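hiii so my PI (J.) wants the whole complex modelled not just the main chain, which honestly fair. so below is everything: two entries, each one labled with what it is. i double checked the lines twice but i was tired so who knows lol
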Amino acid sequence: MDELLSEFLTEANESLAELDNGMVRLEQNPNDPKLLSEIFRVVHTIKGTCGFLGLPRLGAVAHVAEDVLGKFRDGDLSVTPDSVTVILGALDSIKSILGFLELNEKEPDGNDDEIIAELREIADGAGPETTLEDMEAAFEAASAKPQEETMTSTQEIQAELDMAVAAAKEESAAEPVTEGKKLGRRAAAAEAATPAESKIANQNIRVGVDLLEHLMTMVSELVLTRNQLLQMVRGQTDTEFSAPLNRLSHVTTELQEGIMKTRMQPIGKAWSKLPRIIRDLSLDLNKKINLKMFGEDTELDRQMLELIKDPLTHMVRNSADHGIESIEARQAAGKPDAGTVTLKAYHEGGHINIELSDDGAGINIEAVKKKALDTGVVTDSQLESMTDQQVLQLIFRPGFSTAAEVTAVSGRGVGMDVVKTNVEKIGGTVEVSSTPGVGSTFVIKIPLTLAIVSALIVEASDQRFAIPQISVIELVRAAGNAEHTVEMINDAPVLRLRDRLLPLVSLSQVLRLDEQEKEFDTETETFIVVSRVGTYSLGIIVDRVFDTEEIVVKPVAPLMRDIGVFSGNTILGDGSIVMILDPNGLAAAGADNSSVSSAEAVADTSSAVNDESTALLVFSSGHGAPRAVPLALVARLEEIERENIEISDGKPVVQYRGQLMPLVLSHEDQSVEGDGKVAIVVFSEDGRSMGLVVDEIIDIVDDVLNIEITATQPGITGSAIIDGKATDIIDAGYYLTQAFNDWFQSQAAPTSAGGQPKRLLLVDDSPFFLNLLKPLLSAAGYHVTMADGGDEALSILESGGEFDIIVSDIEMPGTDGFDLARACRSDDRWKETPIVALSSHTAAIDLDRGREAGFTDYVAKSDRDGLLSALSQSLTLKGKAA
Amino acid sequence: MTTTKKSGDAAAEEKHGGQLEYVTMTIGGQWFGIPVLSVQDVLGPQNIAMIPLAPPEVAGSLNLRGRIVTAIDPRMRLGLPKREEDATVMSVVVEHHGELYSLLIDQVGEVLKLPSDRFEHNPASLDQRWRDISTGIYRLDDRLLIVIDIERLLNFESSVAA
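here's the output for the full assembly
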C-alpha cells in the first residue's frame, strides 16, 4: 500500500477515536471553546488530506461535517444532542469508508447523500446554505476573533490552504495539490510547534508490533540463559566469571524491565470507546448514565489489553443495560436521576485491579435463580442449598447466558462465562459482589504481564511444580504437633485456619504422582499453599516448598491443553522442565471428591456471613437421634486410641498436647476400655481443653437453627430439624462443667462500686444462645436476667427492671436489636445504660448502623472473649462518665 | 518460522531428479522413514520429564536448547509392545503446527535417497494402525520401509483411544 495512504489511515483512525470522545465531552460541555476548536481542527485536517489523496467521497462527508462543527465553534449553532448524534453518525460513515479503503485501497462506490443531507439540514438551521466563499469569510472572521494565541500561525496557513483549495476548484487539480501538500506540511509543522495542544509527535516513533514481540521473545531467552549461568556459578566461590556475570545479570534485568515497558500501554486505550457506548446506550434506553473513569494511565501489557478490551466492554454494557435503573425507578428509590458507572484501575502487587461498579439496582438474585433453572445450569435441589453469594457466582457458569443476551459488542456470543474464561486464561480472576438496591461491583485482577511471572516452586512426590505467585495467599506448615494440623472429615483432609475450614487437595493425589495411592498421614509435616480460587480459598498440600522465582511462561503443547490443571510450563535455571499449576484447574479436579466440595460449601457459607443459618457439627452418640453442636464452639476434632485413655480421679483423661484433657462421655453406653479409636470433639478455652467422646462424626451442616422442642434431659438444649433430620442440639455448657466444675469461673468478677455484681440484661430470641451465654456471663461475675426477644426485654424494662448494662442480639422477630436500642436511647431511664450488640453481621456498614441506633459497642456473636472485654470496657467508660 | 514440509518434499524431488530423501529408523524392529526435510534434529538419550495426567502416548517433555519439546512414544500408536527398561532410546525431532515433538525410536539408520517411482501405496495386508499413520512404503532389498506421515501421526485430536 502506498505509504502516504497507510499513514493517512493510521492517523485518521486515531483522530476518529479522539473525535468520538471529543463529541461526547462536547455534549456535556457545549460551550467549551478549546474543545470546539480541537474538534474542528481534527475534522478539518481529515478533510484537507482527503483532497490531496483524491478521496472525494470521504472529502464530501468531512466537508459537510466540518461546516456544522465550524458553526458550533463560531457560536452560530448550539450543540444539541440531536446534532451530536448526527455528527457521530457522520463519523461512523467515515469509519466505514476508511475500513473499505484499508482493504481495497480505494473508496467504496456509492454516496453518502443521506448523511450529507442530514448534516446540511443542521448546518442550515442557523442560516443560508454555506458556500465556499462563506467559509472563507467565516475563516477571516474567525481569524479576526480572539482565538488561542498559539493558533495564529496555523490559522493563517489554514486560510491559505483553503484559498488554494478554492483555487483548485477552478483550475486543474495538479498544481494546487502540490501547493496544498506543501501547505499541509507547514500546517502540520506549525501544529507540532504549538506546544499546549499538539501531541509530542516528534518524540514518539511508531514501531511494528511484530518487532516488539520478537524483542520480547529474545529477552525472555536471555533471561533464561542468564538464570542458567547464575545457577552454574552459584556453587562456586569467586571465580573470574563472577564479576562479569553479575554485571550481565544486572544488564539483563534492566533490559527485561525496559522491554516490558515498551509493551505497556495505558488501560485508557481499552476504555476509549466506552464513553460513546454509554452515551448511545443512555439515549437508546432512555436512562441517564454517567461514566466515571479513574486510573486510565495505569499501564499493562499490550497483550493483556487486547484480551481485556472486549470483556470490559461487555460488562460495562451490562451495567448500563441491566444494572442502572430507569429514571423513574431511580427517583422512586430516592437516588439521583443519573446512574453512575465507575471504572477504576490500579496496580497492586504484581498485578492490575480493574473495578467496575454501578450504583444501580444490584444483581437480582431471584432472576439469576430463575435463569439458572431455565437454562439447566443448576437443579432445584442444588439451588436450595446455595447462599446468595453462591447464586451470584452462577452468572459465570457456561450456558448461563442465553442467545437473547448476544449483543452487538463484538458480534460474538459474549456472556459472563466467556469473560471469566478469558480472564482466567491470562492468569487472572474475576469476582462479583452485589447489594440489592445499591449496586454491583466486579473486580478483575490480571497479572501485569503474561510472559514473565513470579512463581512459587513446590515439590510433591519428588517432582517440582510452579504455582503463580498471584494466586498464592499464604503458606502454612502443618504437622501432628504444630499449631496447625490437617484434620480428616469424612476421609477428606481439611485445615482449620483462623476459624474457617479450608478444603484441601493433595497435589500427589490429584496428579496421581504415586504409583499407589498413599493414605494421608496427618502427623507428618506437610506444607499447605493457600490459594485463591474465585471467591473461596483452596489449600494445596505439597511435600516441600522452595523459593519464588521469575519464570518465563511457555504454553503447554496442544495435546495437554485439555488437562486443565496446568496453565503452562517453564524451564528453570538448572535446565529442568517444570509444569505450572493452575489453582482453578486443581480445584475442579479435586472437586471429584465429594467431601472436598462439601467442605468447600461450608467454607463458602461460613464466609458468606448468613444470619439465617449456623454451621453445625453433627455426630452420633448412642442410639436415637443424631446430635449437633454449633461449629463455632468446637476447637478441634480428634481421633485417639482407646489405650491412651487413662483414669484419674475416677474420670477418664487423655494426654493431649502436653496436658491432661478430661473426657466426658456423651452417653452412658460408651466405653473407654478396650481397643480401637474414639472420636473426640474438643472444646478449648483459656488454655484448657475438654474432649467430648462421640460415636461417630457424621457431617458438618449449614442449616437454620430453630429449636422446636426444648428438652428436659440435661446436656440437651432442644431438638431441631437439621438437614432434614430431627437432631438434638447439645448444651455445650453442661458438658464443659462436667469436665471442669469451675469452667465458667475463670475470670475475676467485675463489681460495681458497692461491691455488688453488675446487673446485666441479656436479650436474644434464641433460647440456645441465652442458655449458652448466661453461664459464661454469670461466671464472669454478672447478675444475668434473660429476655426472650426484644419485646420481652422492653416489658422487663418497663416493669421496673434496673440494669447496669444490656447485651442484645440484633436479628430478632418483632422488636429487633436496633428498635430496642432506639427505644432505650429515647427514654430517660435508660439513656445512659450501655448497650452492647451481638450479631453475626460484622461489616463496617453494620457497625455504623449499630452506632447510629444507639449501641455503645458491637461484638460478633462467636467472639466470647470480645464480648467480655466489650462489656467491661463499656462499664468502665460509663463509670468514668458518671 | 519454518516453511511447510510438503513443499520441501517437492523441492527435494526436483533437486535429486525424482528421488526422495528419508531419514530411516527402527522402532520395535520395523524400519520407518521420515522425509529428511521434516526432521529437525536427531538426539541421543535425553532426560525426559514426566508430565502428570498426560495421555499415554506422551512420554513427557524435554529441554532442547531452551525450547520445550513434547516427547511422544509412537509405539503406542503403532501397537508395538512397550520398550524394554534399559533399551537405548533415541529421538527424532519434528515440527507440527509450530510445536516441536520428539519421537522416541530405537535406532536411527542412514539417510536414504529413494527413487520416487518405487514408492508404493500401503498394501491392504498392512496392519491398519500402520496404514493410519503412513503415506506409503518402499520395498527395499532386505526390508520394508514404512514412510511416516507426521501430520497423521501427531493428529491426536481425531484419534479416539487407539
